[in-house]
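Apologies for my clumsy wording, but can you show me some protein sequence, whichever is easiest, together with the matching structure tokens, please?
=====
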Amino acid sequence: MLTSEYNSPVFVLTSDVDWASEDCLQDFFGILDRFGVKPVMMATHRSAAISRRAAEGRIELGLHPNFLPGSTHGATVADVVRHMFDLFPDATTFRSHSFVDSSPIAAAMAGRGLRYDSNLCLYLQPNLVPLRHQSGLVRFPVFWEDDVHAAHGGSWRVDDVIERFLEPGLKVLNVHPLWVSLNISDTAYYDRHKGDSQALSTADLARLRREGDGARTFLVELLRRLTELGHRFSTLGDLHRLASSLPRGDAGRENVVSDAEYECYWKGSAADRQALLKDLYNQRDALDPYATSRDFNARELEIEAIRRALPPAGHVIDLGCGNGYTAISLARGNERHTFTGIDFADRLIDGACRLAASERPPLARPPEFICGDAVAYLSQCATGSADAVITERFLLNLPGRDVQRAVIADCFRVLRPGGRLLMCEASDDAFNALNRLRVATGLPAIPGTSTDNVSAMRFDDAEVEGFAREVGFRLADKLGFSSYFVISRVLHPLLVSPLSPRFGAPINRLARIIQSHLPFAPGFGSNVLWVLEKP
């Protein structure tokens, strides 16, 4: 089991299409649009409505293969899987019709590049979390489904069950367009009309729609209540990225060096320091999206800040890109930018290429990843050849101030006029302010470096901003994550003391959500995004 704890309900709305007509789907989408819900559509057949919404990014596209005897999708597992991917090559997930499951089915889906599914129904079970299937798929179990609810004799009045929906845990809801359009409340009524589902027009739906309580009234009232209570819906893809935040394998996300190695690093030459760091990063699990980020919530905030600060279009260089997670995240649904990532750790670059290739739907403009010395690579770039350069905790790992300054100056040379250096690095000012707050509340100060964080050359804000001006840059913006760091580095440790806080604790996820709705203000924390623009 993945122990990414949910101390509040986390909602996802999925829908098994079950051969619903175009008018039925349009009716269903109309309800979801009223509440701003992006669903995960498990498709069974070609549909103009589904294809259009998938192209517009308004749904997550999944498969709903039928493995039952007599299926029109195929006679064997291989036939069905091939048929479904021929229809929907960009699908990201699946749920089998009638929840049919087997090791060969899961293996076939994983073999086609899927990384998660929702092929298990655990009706109204509390405290659900994602599960790790033996195939390698992450499984998001269904909490509630309309036809299962009917089979259990459940009430169609939201007031009778709302408390179950508000309990902590994963809340994957599954509804069927036909059940919603006809306001079905029992399986007998469904059985009478399911054979006509592909042909039902808007007039047919209005004529056949039941009065009283049913799947339609329940869904509308549930969405209204949840929206009023401030809940929002994620997609399975969103949750998979969160579930992927947990370490996979022994490499984890940090390398603790010995006291002797720590001393050797700070006494060693620049080449010795870089060699040790390269060796440490090559020990990471390169297919873990957060291989270089112990605090994955802070990483997501960094990526969002970088996304906001990118120029409108053009070529972007990501120096010290690690396993490419930032470049891949920025490239999703983005045809305005091209990305090149460079890193000296060959294992991480291999992971970057594999992660980019596994994206579903495929990236329209996949980043290029290069294994090599990022400083040397930058020096060989033509003057005025890039629209943006990203350094995300790259400069802090360089062996000296002189190298840091040289890279900043070379970024100015490589950028076109109007280009931006997006320098997401460690601020000494914000770090010290955070430590003063910790000490004032009875917490110990966080050490600047340690055996589990061996390299961290933070910037004095005034000094680096002054140097950037000397080079020719203009400080266009300065973003930070003060709210997140105050909650995660002060409030969180105070609440769990004397236990040690964990990066993956639920409060840190909540801190990230809170920060995402507040100004990205610097002042407290360890990371700041300097947006430096070349006039």
Notes: Residues 245-251 have pLDDT under 50 and may be disordered. The domain at 259-533 is CATH 3.40.50.150 (Rossmann fold). The chain has two domains: 9-243, 259-533.
